[in-house]
Design the sequence.
């Protein structure tokens, strides 16, 4: 648990999956990335799905919802999905009451981030919660490019609109005192990182801007990104601020490392102080 102002932050594991290591690291050669992310026989690396619970005095927030339970057997095998929990199950397994969730922040609508927003029948997992997403991301998800069409499943998010549970942000926004969203566009248009701060301690939920600790290094950019050069610019700007202001960076997909403060060495970003949440 990490205390930031009036908020108590808790890491919530919701399962594991695996993606192709080459796709996860783009132009970086395998002899470099496999030193920290060993691939299996199918060249896939292990990834976590780590949500974040933010307990406040009046509202309780959950960031992202994991992969959900809508995949058939074949894609489950392709992505090596293991121990996947719906977010209410993950919250309960961590010792918290799912009924307390008032708000869900969706960093973006790819299936491994928003898949648990709804059940297989389209029912929202948190029927009384407000779901927050960037308007530009929702519009992109309704008409994605051929490159990223497979990452979006309308059943994950369209029912939220139909049930009037979606709240749209247009750019940077403060959702509550000390909870902000910072949009970035390199991975997919309108992805939002989440920043929790009391002016002294700050945590950045990096989503797919920095999915694992290995991705702190500037050239380590996913082939999944729509605009990799824009990702590099966004990483340089946001992680530079994280260094200067000693933010904690939270890794949604790292299977081992939860969070750390970061520094710079030889002109690039590196982990500095491991933080347990």
Sequence:
């Amino acid at each position: 648990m990490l205390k930031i102002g009036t908020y108590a932050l808790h890491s919530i594991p919701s399962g594991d999956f695996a993606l192709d290591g080459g796709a996860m690291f783009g132009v970086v050669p395998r002899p470099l990335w496999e030193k920290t992310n060993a691939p299996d026989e199918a060249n896939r690396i292990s990834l976590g799905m780590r949500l974040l619970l933010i307990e406040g005095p009046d509202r309780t927030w959950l960031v992202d919802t994991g992969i959900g339970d809508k995949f058939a057997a074949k894609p489950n095998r392709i992505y090596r999905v293991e121990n996947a929990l719906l977010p209410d199950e993950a919250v309960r397994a961590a010792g918290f009451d799912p009924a307390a969730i008032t708000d869900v922040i969706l960093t973006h609508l790819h299936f491994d981030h928003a898949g648990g927003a709804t059940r297989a029948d389209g029912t929202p997992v948190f029927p009384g919660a407000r779901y927050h997403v960037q308007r530009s991301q929702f519009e992109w998800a309704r008409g994605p490019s051929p490159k990223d069409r497979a990452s979006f499943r309308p059943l994950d998010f369209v029912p939220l609109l139909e049930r009037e549970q979606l709240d749209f942000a247009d750019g940077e926004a403060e959702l509550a005192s000390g909870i902000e969203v910072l949009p970035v566009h390199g991975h997919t248009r309108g992805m939002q990182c989440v920043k929790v701060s009391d002016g002294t301690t700050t945590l950045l939920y990096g989503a797919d801007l920095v999915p694992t600790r290995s991705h702190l290094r500037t050239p380590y950019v996913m082939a999944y990104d729509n605009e990799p050069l824009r990702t590099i610019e966004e990483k340089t700007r946001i992680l530079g601020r994280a260094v200067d202001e000693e933010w904690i960076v939270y890794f949604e997909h790292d299977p081992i490392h939860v969070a750390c403060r970061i520094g710079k060495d030889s002109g690039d970003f590196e982990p500095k102080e491991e933080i347990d949440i």
